[in-house]
Design goal:
The protein is an alpha/beta fold. It contains 7 helices and 15 strands. The protein folds into 2 domains: about 120 residues, Response regulator (Rossmann fold, 3-Layer(aba) Sandwich); about 100 residues, LytTr DNA-binding domain (OB fold (Dihydrolipoamide Acetyltransferase, E2P)). About 35% of the residues lie in helices and about 35% in strands.
């Protein structure tokens, strides 16, 4: 379910945008909930929980869209924001509040479709990736971002997350395939680590979420290159 907020002080413009979104819903079978707000102040006072995408008019009487967006960013840095305006020059200012896109009035179904396709791609990319592991206790779905490192121990692996450990009857090679497209690196025959949790590296040791792990001397240079690439 996609949760959308329309922030627009003109009832006619809200209806046009809603109609375009409803058309997109019918054509793509995208489940969505649309809530309307007649001003930036009204939106901020009743900021909806779990909103995914906001369409906000820039030129509003009670509180303009840029002012509302700056206050919004103090609460939520990640929610997708699209500015709606009749004056192109104001859209450029949207970059200061990390606007994803802008729509030029009068809004058309084609423009909304392109914007929605873009938004859904962004949301899919940012959605947490869950990995599925099974043991005698059942099937465990663990967000990849919660895994600090995976350790090989005899014929099992131990998954170390931020708040627990989990033993699985599997191999480190199998786990490595599962995270092939994610920022993990096998720095040692016994350790597959999440680069996001690397604290520091010294000699042939790496500290991952406060724990010291060994780095294979044969993989050290490749590991340092991978970490540098991850850090940008």
């Amino acid at each position: 379910m996609l949760h959308i907020a329309l922030v627009e002080d003109t009832a006619f413009d809200r209806q046009v945008l809603r109609s375009c979104l409803e058309e997109y819903r019918r054509e793509t079978s995208t489940e969505m909930e649309i809530r309307e707000f007649a001003s930036g102040k009204d939106f901020l006072e009743h900021f909806p929980e779990g909103v995914d995408l906001i369409f906000m008019d820039i030129m509003m009487d009670e509180m303009d869209g840029l002012t509302a967006a700056r206050q919004l960013r103090r609460r939520d840095e990640k929610v997708l924001l699209v500015f709606v305006t009749s004056m192109f020059q104001y859209a450029v200012q949207g970059y200061s509040v990390d606007a994803m896109d802008f729509l030029l009035k009068p809004v058309t179904p084609t423009a909304v479709k392109l914007c929605m396709d873009h938004a859904l791609r962004r949301l899919q990319q940012s959605a947490p990736v869950c990995l599925s592991f099974s043991n005698r206790e059942g099937i465990h779905a663990i967000p990849a971002s919660d895994i600090c490192y995976i350790e090989a121990l005899q014929h099992r692996i131990i998954i170390h997350t931020k708040d627990r450990t989990l033993q699985i009857d599997s191999s480190l090679a199998s786990a490595e395939k599962m995270v092939a497209a994610l920022p993990f690196f096998r720095c040692h025959a016994s350790f597959l680590i999440n680069l996001a949790y690397v604290d520091r590296i010294s000699g042939n040791s790496v500290w991952v979420s406060g724990e010291e792990l060994a780095i294979s001397r044969y993989r050290r240079k490749e590991f340092l290159d991978a970490w540098a690439a991850y850090l940008g």
